[in-house]
Structure formats: C-alpha cells, structure tokens
Amino acid sequence: MKTRLSIRIVTIMMVFMTLVFAGVFTLLGLYIISRMGYNTPGDDAHPPFLILLFCASSVIGTLISVPLTRYFVIPIKDIAKAMDKVKEGDFEVRIDETQTSAELGVLVRGFNGMVEELGSIELFRKDFISNFSHEFKTPITSIRGFAKELLADDTLSEGQKREYLQIIFDESERLSNMASNVLLLTNLEHTTKLSGGKWFSLDEQIRRCLLLLERRWMEKELELDLELDEIYCEGDEEMLSHIWVNLLSNGIKFSPRGGVLSVRCYKADGDICVSVSDRGQGIPQDKIEKIFDRFYQADTSHQSDGNGLGLALCKRIAELAEGSISVKSELGKGSTFTVSLKDKAITHTESK
Ligand code: ADP
C-alpha cells in the first residue's frame, strides 16, 4: 500500500515536471526559431515540426525531471521508512540531514529532534520501571523471608519474634511510604500549577514539621539551631510541608549523633528562603547533580532508610511553586539545602 502510494507520488511528480519542462522548452524553441528568422509554425503551419519539437523537449524534460524528482522524493521515502521504524519502537533511527534539500532539511531536523526526545523519554521510562521494581522487590523479599521464619520456626524466642515483627512493620511502612511518594510524584508530574491563594505562617509550619519529627531528632540527640523569621507566605501549604519534612528528615538522617541541625527562614532579594543545614558526611561533588533524580541514592549506607524519592519530590514541588532548590555540600563538613520561593507579598504590593 505504502509502496504503491510512493510510486504514484513519484509518477505524478515526474509526469508533471516533464510536461512543465516540455512546455517551457517548446516555447523556448519556437522563440529561438522566430528570432533566427525561420517561419514559425504560427506563420505557416508545420505540425510535424511542432510534434518533433515537443518530443525533443519532452526528452530533455524527462532527463531533467528524473534526477530532480529523485532529489525531492528520496528524502520523503526515507522519512516514511524512519517513521515506520519509530512506530515499531526503534528510537535510534536518524535521517541524514546533509542529503536533503533546504526545505526538507527543516522537516528532517524536526524529525530527528523529535525521535531523540522520544528516545530519552523511553529510556527514562525503562529506567523508572526497573528502579521501581527493584525498590519494591527488596522490602517485599524481606517481609516474605521474616514472615516465613515466624511461621516455620516454633523455637523462636519472644525477643526474636518481636524483632522479626518489627522488621516486617518497618519494611511495610517503607513500602507504603514509597507507594505514596511515587503516587504523589506521578500526580505532580501531570500538574502544572499548585493550588494557592492561602496565606499561612511559614515559620509556624516549619516548627510543626520539626515537632512531627521530634522522636527522630531526640533519638539522635541533635541540637536544634533555629532562626525562623516571622514570615507570611502564600501558596499550597500542604505541598510545601512535604519539602520541609523531606529536607529535615534528611538533615536528621545524615547528621552524626549529638550533631547540630540548623534551620533558617528569612527574606532575601525578593525571595522567601528556607535552609536546612546539617554537619554530616556531605555529598561528593560528582553526585550532587544526581541527588534530585528519582530513586537516586548517593550514600549506600543509608539506602534502607529511604527510597531516593524525597529530593525529586522537593524539586518538583519547588518548581511548581515557581521556586527553586539548591544544595551546597562539603565532604566531612555537612550539607545545606536552600529553597527559594517568590515573595508573593511583594508581587501583591507591586500590583496594587
Ligand atoms: P533518600 O530517601 O534516600 O534520602 P532523597 O531523594 O531524599 O532520598 O535523597 C537522595 C540522596 O541524596 C540520598 O540517598 C543521599 O545520598 C543524598 N542526600 C540527601 N540529603 C543529604 C544530606 N543532608 N546529607 C548527605 N547526603 C544527602
């Protein structure tokens, strides 16, 4: 079907171009003859001469139109072939941009760009599925193993039973958190704007988040160093609290026992900033860029305490709130995560 269609296109193009060239050459022939002073068929009818002239022009027209048609049609055939490959899932296919005319070059460049983009989305999807499956499989295997032990071994002491049940509880909680994070992240990927319009006290919200995590920083005997300016902020309160909880949890998790966790909230250059600093191990420079990727965990020793989704969530929420998140870290000294949000109070005053 496709071959027949392209043959039809080639034939129509060739016939059309041949007729155009034949017509042009016939008229040109007649003009030259009349200029040379010979009788033109118009003066004295010479049908065989006219036919001969037209035939000669048609031959010349064909000789020119064949390569010209090929020049225009072959790239179209290449594009059609490449599209078929993309349809079959091959995102490696590219069309040679140097072999096409300027007009088709734009189309070919657009096509190559589109396939490249599709390829990276596909890679991202495959990566996501494999990470997702791996992250889900590990706790499930652990839950299964300990549940089996509990069922099969009657000689387990009360202490051992409690220990196994605690592991099952922790792992199922990890699974549940991961499922919620994946769901939230997927929802946020399809969201273009957070709900806003609500004013709330940011410093109060941060204090509430710290209270929520009290058991964890108390367990680690951390000293809290807080400098929270009184700030009213407009935005999606619930979503923003996800950022603070994630950053504070990481700060606690990566702080050494008895360390200091510093939290600041202040206004600077028209922005509202929140920073969380710990004095933990820090992040190697070559890994800093990746820590905002889904499922990425730079530090394997804390792997079981998280799932590598927290910072990806923070970044997405900050983006949706028209803000940004940055990190400064030094190995052995600690890390500071800073979130900057537009100060809507200024925008509101300016627009009045
Ligand atoms: P996780 O659940 O593993 O903490 P995150 O997305 O929150 O996932 O963080 C990704 C990775 O970034 C972590 O696994 C860790 O390697 C690194 N990271 C995040 N916060 C800190 C921090 N405060 N100090 C050191 N490393 C950190």
Describe the structure.
The structure is a single chain. This protein has 352 residues and is of the alpha+beta class. It contains ten helices and seven strands. The chain has helices at residues 2-35, 47-87, 102-152, 158-189, 202-212, 214-219, 237-254, 285-288, 310-320, 344-351; strands spanning 199-201, 223-228, 232-234, 260-268, 271-278, 324-330, 334-342. The strands form two sheets. The chain has a five-stranded mixed beta sheet, with helices on one face. Strand 4 and strand 5 form a beta hairpin. Helix 3 (102-152) runs antiparallel to helix 4 (158-189). The model has no long low-confidence stretch (mean pLDDT 85). Bound molecules: adenosine-5'-diphosphate.
Record keyword descriptors for this entry.
352 residues, alpha+beta, five-stranded mixed sheet, two-stranded antiparallel ribbon, 10 helices, 7 strands, 61% helix, elongated, binds adenosine-5'-diphosphate
Helix content: 55-70%
Small-molecule components bound: adenosine-5'-diphosphate
* Widest sheet: strand ordering: 2-4-5-7-6
Overall 3D geometry? elongated
Strand-and-helix sequence, N→C?
HHHHEHHEEHEEHHEEH
- Multimerization status: single chain
Roughly what is the average pLDDT, rounded to an integer? 85
Alpha-carbon distance between the two ends: 65 Å
Q: Specify the biggest β-sheet.
A: 5 strands, mixed
- How many distinct beta strands? 7
What value does the Rg take, in angstroms?
Answer: 36 Å
Structural class: alpha+beta
Poorly predicted runs of 5 or more residues: none
- Please tally the helical runs, counting DSSP H or I stretches of 4 or more residues: 10
